[in-house]
Amino acid sequence: MDVAEHFRTILRGWWRTIPLALVVAGLVYGVSSRRHPQYVGAAIVQVVTGASQTGKGSPQQTALVTDGYTALATSTSVLADAIKRANLTITPKTARSRIQTVEVNALGMILVKASGPTSLNAIGLAQGDIDALVAAVRTQQQRAAVADVTRLLQDEQRVRAQLAALPANSPQVPLLTAQIRADQGARAARAARPVNQVVVLTGAIGNGQPISPRPLRDAVFAFVLTFILASELWVLLSARADRFSTTDETEMMRELGLPVLARVPKGSPAETVEAIRTLRTNLMFLAGAGRPRTVAVVSASPGAGKTSVAVQLAESAAALDEQVVLIDADLRKPEVHERTGVDRAPGLTSVLQGADIATALRRSRSGSWLRVLPSGAPVGDPSGVLGARAFRQVLENLRSMRLVVVDTPPAELFADAIAIASQCDATVYVLDMKTSRKRAVRASIEALRRGGANIVGVVVNRAAAPRSSTEAEVAA
């Protein structure tokens, strides 16, 4: 199924998919409209490192510190403090689920968003979280400073104890005295050193509009999604229903109104040869129609195997010492000359333009009575050439032959097949069990009949398995 047929199938099934999508959209709208509204509050803080306050900071250092404070903003201790500050009656776990996003950018900005059942609730949680974060960072920095100063003070006290134990004239006294002065200077420098800070740039605010539910948006999304899924399911079911899923002759006859003349299996070459012999026999003893002298081999689409059937049928008939001619009338994409090992030109197009048919006929490499009339050089208007009086004259010039088999282009792509089949005594329709579709096959068969073709039966190519019973029965 190509893209155009895909969309045509969707359009054919609109009366199923659109009502279903509307029902689903209505259900989603009803469910969504009953949900409790959720509001959002947002606040922005900025991380300022101590090093950046002295002009010695770097973006990498700021990003590293900001990452740490971003994680701190959703820690259990900060969330518990935020709940207390916002006067909420929720757990830290619930608060963490309501902190929707904590985004960090290269400038050390942290955007905190919180949701809640009311706008005040959401704003309160967001404001409580940033206030708790500021307090936690401040406490964290103060503790770090106290720890450093305490360590330096303890070191100074240790040195003073050593100094007190020495005599006044000891040579170590100046060294210990200098170390005490150094500790005092370091303690003063640590106390004066800038610390990391979290500065509130924008307090928590909200727009007063709920972020959810949005029944109309949800309903539209549900409609589109349901329509797409239902349409694709309809296409899948239509494609499966359009396949020939069985090898039962009665189904073929019921679907197409034609007898099955032969089934060419996917098995061994011997089984294929036997199937072609069955086709040859059926054509020789068509009930109520007489033995056809000219037979067109047609299929709806390329790849169905019509050329293989045409070549093998001609070779099988020639094996009976019959005078057989195989004509390649597929002027669009000829293959017979390659299958039979002859030159493409001169061929049918030369004869249609006035050349002697005897100069264009080639002996098949099989060595039998089979003669091949290849397609010849390309022409600009194949349908016009084949539908004109000239092609009928070609067939008349071969009236001395016992059988003329004509390979044709795909019927659903070109009108050439109709022009050819209408000038032959009988038409054999080839369909592939895997690739052929019922709709296309029925349409092409109907077009052939309207054009005057005498379709005598169907050849099922690449059938699943050879049939055990004879297929030489001819429909009445």
Radius of gyration: 45 Å
Strands side by side in the biggest sheet: 5-12-11-6-10-7-9-8
Please give the alpha-carbon distance between the first and last residues.
35 Å
- Approximate shape: elongated
Poorly predicted runs of 5 or more residues: 466-476
How many strand elements?
12
| Number of helices, counting only DSSP H or I runs of 4 residues or more | 19
User: Can you give the helix content as a percent range?
Assistant: 40-55%
Structural class determined from secondary elements: alpha/beta
Biggest β-sheet, characterized? 8 strands, mixed
Rounded mean pLDDT is 86
Strand content: 15-25%
Report on the structure:
This protein is α/β, with parallel strands linked by helices. It has 19 helices and 12 strands. The strands form 2 sheets. It has an 8-stranded mixed beta sheet with strand order 5-12-11-6-10-7-9-8, with helices on both faces. It has a 4-stranded antiparallel beta sheet with strand order 2-3-1-4. The two termini are 35 Å apart. The C terminus is likely disordered.
